[in-house]
Amino acid sequence: MTAESVLVLMYHRVGEARNAWEARYAIGASRFAEHMRALQAAGFRAVEASALVDWLEGAASLPPRSFVLTFDDGFRDVRQHALPVLQRLGWPFTVFLVSGLIGQQDLWTRSANPDGVTYPLLDATEIREMQRAGVAFQSHTRSHASLPTLDDEQLATELADSRAELQALLGTPVHFLAYPFGHVDERVVRAAKQAGYRAAFSTQPGFNRRDVDRHRIRRIDVYGTDTANQLLRKVKLGMNDGSVSNLARYYWGRAKSRLQATS
Ligand SMILES: [Zn+2]
């Protein structure tokens, strides 16, 4: 049996949220552990992002219920709270780093966060230590800019410099990109290919079948407010809405189309 589609989950910060805005991006440590246990109990198993891309390229097979776990931005608390949980499970994961802000803070959120606070990002020593523990690091650009707003030169710099800086830091090739804020258009995709990225991750929700655009890989946005059951519904539906009513709409839609097919 081989997978027909593969889900990619997107997390950000793993730690307490201080307001409702943060609650979307920050998941408490114990809730994160519950999420992973729920996925494991449902038969899911995390695989490397590179295994997904190999699978998309037809170069590898993946068992059903394989999924890819990603963390955007490179928050320091991923090391503290997520790494131990994932090491116990033996599950690989990928962190997308902002190469110009290594060891600094998520400055791009300051104006959006109602409390105006920022959080620490992993520094070079922590990144190398996590790399030795098997964590994969890829690019989230140089400054977390909204790429479609940049001119051609700035765009090329964000993409190429980030890749070069991370390769120098990691001593390994960087093949993948996650678009900041999920902002992407045709020109950005062309520039990402030109900068040498083999694949790129969007924030468009949905299942990834083999025909998905490798530079627009879909991801489910996991909110800090999602209970384990909401997460399992998201994973079932391939949608960001993990409410019971959304699952009910899904079953109703399937039942209706079956009735129509038989009438
Ligand atoms: Zn980001």
Any chance you could write out the topology, listing elements then pairs?
Elements: E1 7-11, E2 13-14, H1 20-25, E3 26-27, H2 29-41, E4 45-46, H3 49-56, E5 66-73, H4 76-89, E6 94-97, H5 124-132, E7 136-139, H6 152-170, E8 176-178, H7 186-194, E9 199-201, E10 220-221, H8 228-237, H9 244-262
Helix pairs in contact: 2-4, 2-8, 6-7
The protein binds zinc ion.
Residues 72-73, 140, 144, 180 line the site of zinc ion.
What does this structure look like?
- It is a single chain.
- Helices cover 41% and strands 13% of the residues.
- The protein is of the alpha/beta class and 263 residues long.
- Strands 1, 4, 5, 6, 7 and 10 form a six-stranded parallel sheet that branches. A two-stranded parallel ribbon has the order 2-3. A two-stranded parallel sheet has the order 8-9.
- Helix 4 (76-89) links the parallel strand 5 and strand 6 (94-97).
- The radius of gyration is 18 Å and the shape is globular.
- 38% of the residues are buried.
- Zinc ion (ZN) binds at residues 72-73, 140, 144, 180.
- Count of helical regions: 9
Give the CATH H-level superfamily: Glycoside hydrolase/deacetylase
The CATH architecture designation is Alpha-Beta Barrel
Radius of gyration: 18 Å
Order of helices and strands: EEHEHEHEHEHEHEHEEHH
Mean pLDDT: 96
Report the top-level CATH class: Alpha Beta
Work out the number of β strands. Answer: 10
How would a crystallographer describe the biggest sheet?
6 strands, parallel
Task: Please report the distance between the alpha carbons of the first and last residues.
Answer: 33 Å
Helicity, as a percent range: 40-55%
Percentage of residues in strands:
5-15%
- CATH T-level topology: TIM Barrel
Return the domain count: 1
